[in-house]
Amino acid sequence: MWPTLKESVRAFVEGFPLFQSEWAYLHRNNSGKYKVVPVSDSASSLDYLKSSTDFTFTDGIYVATDDGRPMVVSLILSDSDLTDFWFANGNYNDKDETAEWFSYASDNAVRHTAVAWSALPTALPGSHTEGKTLLDVQGQVFGNLPPSPEGYVDRPSLESELRGRLGASDWHRVVTLVGAGGSGKTTLTLAVLHGLAQNGPYETMLWFSSRDVDLTERGPISVVPKVLTLKEISLTLWSLMHGEAPPKQFDKEEFLARQLQASELGACLFIFDNFETIEQPVAVYDWLNAHIGAKNKILITTRLRSFKGDYPVEVAGMTRSEFGLLVDTVSERLGIVGRLSSSQVDDLFAKSDGHPYITKLILGHIAVAGTQQGLGRIIARREDVLDALFERSFKQVTPLAQCAFLTLCGWRSVVPRLAIEAVLIHSVRPDEMPDTSAAVDQLANYSLIELISGQDDSVFVRVPNIARLFGQKKLEVNPSQALIRENIDLLQLFGAMHESEVARGYQPRLNKFLSSLDDRINTPEDLAKWSPTVETIARSLPDAWLKLADWEEAQGSPEKGLEASSRFLEALPQSKRGWKRYLRAAESAGDIRAQAQALISYSRLRHEALWDVFGNVNRLNGLFQDLRVLMEREEREALYSSMLVLFDNINMSEMNPTQLSLLAWLAIHAGKKGSARKYVAFLQKIDPENKHLPGLQNIY
User: Fold this and answer.
1) Distance in angstroms (rounded) separating the CA atoms of residues 325 and 196
2) pLDDT per residue over 390-402, tens digit each?
3) How far apart are CA 565 and CA 379, in angstroms?
4) Using CA atoms, how far apart are residues 540 and 674, in angstroms rounded to an integer?
5) Which helix (H) or strand (E) holds 10?
6) 304 closest CA partner among 333, 271, 278
7) What is the pLDDT of residues 169-203, one digit of tens each?
8) Taking the complete model, does pTM exceed 0.85, yes or no?
9) What is the rounded distance in angstroms from the CA atom of residue 197 to the CA atom of residue 444?
10) Among candidates 533, 522, 535, 604, which has minimal Cα distance to 563?
């Protein structure tokens, strides 16, 4: 008898090896950690992703491999709630490069991007900068460096800094050349290395390329990376040294570690180009850094700044003089000398931020089209260029950092760093409270933004114009567009700001934002919504705590107002204004202890004008009966003694009767009978009929 279909399916499910593995839906949280939702009975082998930010996976269904690494299942779609499963079902649309995914459970169909399958399955070429396959004599060293770049424009300051770092025998064994895509890191590196090969401290220079896109003047071209893992680095190094495959019993890590520590080729410079493309670049960096020997160095070119213990050399846009030379050199080669006036070159420099690759593309467009169009219009049409420069970096950063970047791209202004951090706090759920500062750091680490220092340690954020074009394109199709648009509206409350205003610091902008909230906080619910944002600002602008205290009291929460005033004093404990506001908050909250402490602390700060603080002495004496209930005698007397000691050196002959009586009562409350008798005796001497004397004399 033939088995039933149900039995056949069960036999397949139970016997198919892939179904014995663990399956899960991975969702990356704002923090960069992952929500792991089991699709199989469990997915414990992927639980390490819940606490790690070292991995980057797009949301989707994954199957765990034998070594616990997730492998994406691209042809099945779902969501983090596993509400349904859609399977690739064809019906490809060439115009928008989407296809149909179909659910066999609900009979629903959805369209989803199929860009990953739109390219022809042909072998990719190698990069023109991947290096030679065998060591050769290059100048005075052995090496496999790619050829010197043609048409290279000198960048004297950067070249000098890089040469200095590579030649220094300091403890920085790793030098990183950091900058955005297309900023000229590789060409700068090759120019410097070919110079060092003629007269430098190394006997061998070993070049390893992880480049997956060549930025040509025709546009980006996908290429195959030469090395992506430590294993591939080791195999490539063996091949360079021996010209043959390694033996079967070959310990790749041991061999690479040994060559890094003390190479058979003498003093070595190991160069890793496009290091951010390597799998787990931070982990690979840590391994290389741990094994590099004293006579060797490592040079890394990268868009990523997340390495510890290295010496970073920043590659930003060209200077105006370097940019002018680049325009002249490229224009001469393209036959368009004189097409651009001096003012047009200035405009191109400003709008391109001196970005060399973008500049070459613009000049190429002018050569072909014969006219100069706006930078934005030209580059916006070249999605391939924007993706090549920024897509990888954008995918690597956390969802919260992506949200920050898109928010910044929607507002054409320099903004205080604290402003974007505060806006991000407002846009996430109260139970999340992610590290918004880390999100901004990540954007800077991946060269998506620039950080500019102002006065008083203030920091501002600027998005380069080309990166902004990429972000605006991304924003149009982002599923969180409504939230990001709201963030942009909030960011605008800080006011538009030009880079030239950075020197003034951020306080005027933050004050402008806080003032704008006066009209937005009308209920306790409004205040609860805005409090996390204001508290973020208060980390760098303590006055925000006082603003928050005012709002809390206005909304009927004097205890929270007192707490906010206390936070201000934690930041500025010597502020007379702060203690005065704290006293007012303590009175509103009915907190007797806090009132007493405020009176004493405020008086201490006014020690140079003690005659002005007798009012505080009078108020502190007036709290005695309440403090008698709240405090044990020893604590209470210590409190009053801390106020009395301020007047130890005061001249009684300069005091009037009222002041003497106040100090006498203060001494009595402090348990200082000797001091009290001294003040009473002097009061009786100068004013025998004083109305306070009977009460004071009765105590003694």
Assistant:
1) 24
2) 888 898 888 899 9
3) 51
4) 48
5) helix 5-15
6) 278
7) 777 889 999 998 889 999 999 999 999 999 889 99
8) no
9) 33
10) 535
